[in-house]
Amino acid sequence: MLVSERASTATAGTAATADAVRLDGVTRRYGKGGSVVMALREVSVGFPQGSFTAVMGPSGSGKSTLLHCAAGLDRPTSGTVHLGSTDLTAMREPKLTELRRHKVGFVFQAFNLMPSLTVEHNITLPLRLAGRRPDRAWLSEVIAGVGLRDRLRHRPAELSGGQQQRVAIARALVTRPEVVFADEPTGALDTRSGREVLGLLRQAVDDLGQTVVMVTHDPVAASYADRVVLLADGRLAGTMTTPTPERVAERLTRLGE
User: Fold this and answer.
1) pLDDT (tens digit, 9 = 90+) per residue, 84-127?
2) Which residues have C-beta within 8 Å of that of residue 90, sequence separation ≥ 6?
3) What's the sign of the alpha-carbon dihedral 197, 199, 202, 206?
4) Which residue, 15, 145, 146, 163, has most beta carbons within 10 Å?
């Protein structure tokens, strides 16, 4: 089980209610003239520290754009994005890249592993890119938590899809990020592997005080979260707490009403 001192500190005092990430009045527009696409329209939403949030909505509702803006992968046309107290929209690209390496973790539907590297080297790649040495105690804890101790010398082609996504989760956690962003992390997995991956993300929140923001279309995946943020036509369309698959599915059918 993933356990660390962070679990006790991340949920103590006012930190439990502070936003790890905050979007204020974020609009993202693509194109010009008659070909303009409004991906996000004045979205304001916060993601509290130590929480697990699922972002949902129909295709084209702005889910991935919201995640990319929140993670500093894309810049809003207007509005602001804060990671903690840092305004990402005011940062130049080199500083933004450095911040992402140190403070943000990513898990995608495509595992994005380096095929020539072993499991251990894939996990520690973000540290090497940032010029940092691994904290061996923390690395060992992360590897044990995702159940990969007996796979460290394997390469991605020797792993199942679920195991590859476990590597991706370990890679996202190894830098001790302030936020982990997950974009359809179970989309390429079978049901059993998908539930294992969702359980690991849930465990990272519960045991480590990690903040997870996950884009998904799956009501079952969303039920692992503390809260669901709903988007429709690029606008915030509501939120749900203590989601169940049934409640989420029913609410999705009523978006836009």
Assistant:
1) 999 999 899 999 999 998 899 999 989 999 999 999 999 999 99
2) none
3) negative
4) 146
Q: Which CATH architecture has domain 6-253?
A: 3-Layer(aba) Sandwich (3.40)
User: d(Cα 77, Cα 111) in Å, to the nearest integer?
Assistant: 29
| Residue 250 C-beta-side C-alpha neighbours within 13 Å | 6
pTM for the whole structure: 0.89
Task: Give the 3-state secondary structure of residue 187.
Answer: coil
Q: Sign of the CA dihedral 161, 72, 204, 63?
A: negative
Which residue's structure tokens are 């539930």?
A: 195
Is there a contact between 137 and 147 (Cβ–Cβ < 8 Å)? no
Neighbours of 126 (CB within 10 A): 21
Number of CB atoms found within 10 A of residue 227's CB: 17
What ranges do the domains of the chain cover? 6-253
State the virtual CA torsion across 152, 153, 157, 161 in degrees, nearest 10.
-10
pLDDT digits (tens, 9 = 90+) for 165-187: 999 999 999 999 999 999 999 99
Contact predicate 193/160, CB 8 Å: yes
Q: With contact defined as beta carbons under 8 Å apart, do 3 and 29 qualify?
A: no
The answer to whether the beta carbons of residues 225 and 54 sit under 8 Å apart is: yes
Of the candidates 15, 24, 21, which has an alpha carbon nearest to the alpha carbon of residue 71? 21
